[in-house]
Give the backbone structure.
Amino acid sequence: MLLLLSSSNCTITISTDTATCEMTNDNITFRFTGIAQYDEVYQALLKHQVIFIRGGNIGPKQHLEFAESFGELDDPHPHYPHVEGHENIVLLANDANTPPDTNSWHTDLTFKTIQPFASILIARHVPASGGDTMWSSCYAAYNRLSTGMKNDLENRQAVHDLGDFRNTFATEQNGKSGIERLNHNVPRFGHNIRPLIGTHPVTGRKFLNFNEAFVSHIVGLTTNESNALRTFLANHMNKPEDQVRWRWSVGDLAMWDNRVTMHYALADYLPQYRCMNRITIVDDRRAKE
Ligand SMILES: O=C(O)CCC(=O)C(=O)O
Ligand SMILES: [Fe+2]
């Protein structure tokens, strides 16, 4: 299906009815001028979960302005550096000496008290080959469960904590050993318990709120049972049919609804350099309207 939604200076091209839509500006320069257009982007995001703006090439100030139009920004990231002068813009710069840690299926920061609403990522330097990002739909993962499994999981709760991120903190940095950093950060973030079957606050659609990077236990099960269920869910949620994969060019922008998607940044470009900027929005302003 190909659907074109147009307004004065923005064209939204929706290429499938399940996963993605792509937006390009008529005159290539990225320019969302009015609230109406932000509303259009928001509606597209709710419907498609991940949206792309090819070659928008906006700078950090416009990136912030765009993000702030959707809600309150997250605090500076607990681990990643930020873009100079902009502490809310995460700098993801990787090469052979600083390999990435985002090559696992995850939903951003689900261990925090509030599971962030959305993230907006812009490519600043793209390797000659590799470095794609994939997203997967947690609505689709829920829909594919059998009725029996949907019923079994309906009232289950999952513990989200630092999970795989422990490995990131378990390294020496700024004169602090990995053990010291772990001891400091594990209690600092603690954990949060969330329903395994979530309901989107705006669309009302059900989704599977599991990601293998941060869900460490399913409440009420033994560790052995929980591990078996986690392995099942991780496999279940890794289906190409539910995924979209983006081949980046410099300046491209991706925005995802972080409540109902997971993503995976392919680490297949090393030792080449790759650099991305990310802003995370905690709070969905329009959800309260
Ligand atoms: O580098 C990427 O493509 C995505 C990294 C990531 O996980 C994120 O920005 O949340
Ligand atoms: Fe991420």
